[in-house]
Amino acid sequence: MDTLRGPAAIYKHEHAAVRNVNEEFQKKGTRGQRVADKVAQIVGSWPFIIFQSAIILIWMGANVYLVYMAGTNSDFFVSWDPYPFILLNLALSFQAAYTGPVVMMSQNRQNEKDRLMAEQDYEINKKAEVEIKIIMDHLVYQDAKINSLLDEIKTLKIVNDKN
After folding, report:
1. How confident is the model at residue 2 (pLDDT cuts 50, 70, 90)?
2. Residue 160, pLDDT score
3. Which of 57, 59, 58, 77 is nearest to 67 (CA)?
4. What CA–CA distance (Å, rounded) separates 127 from 32?
5. Cα–chain center distance at 37
6. N or C: which end of the chain has fewer CB within 10 A?
7. What confidence tens digit (pLDDT) does each residue in 87-133 have?
């Protein structure tokens, strides 16, 4: 090791720059994957749940009202989905049959992204460990140099005091 320069001065900080996994992942995704992410984002939100609940309540309320009105007035419009709301069950089953796999695709993509982020964190931690060791070695080197200088100052002071 160069005695005039410490470990930190001779350390080469040569490694790839830290990358943004989110940006890379977004660029890498296919159209289908982006659609799956958007569907999962919408279906997994409170506005969607509230909107869907409102539609279901309106559907059921309208059909119950139409059954009641058709029972009291024979000329009234007949309910399109009377109790037990078989058409509504079919629509909800259809929705679940398609959104379930799409949400799973989005979750698989998120798992892949999490794995890449964990790998990147591991690589950064390895680099940080090496750099911290270099810094600690350099601090030890500086302590030795400072102690050497202090000893030299004491020696000069003793020689100076004798003169």
Report:
1. low
2. 82
3. 77
4. 36
5. 13
6. C
7. 999 999 999 999 999 999 999 999 998 998 999 899 889 989 988 99
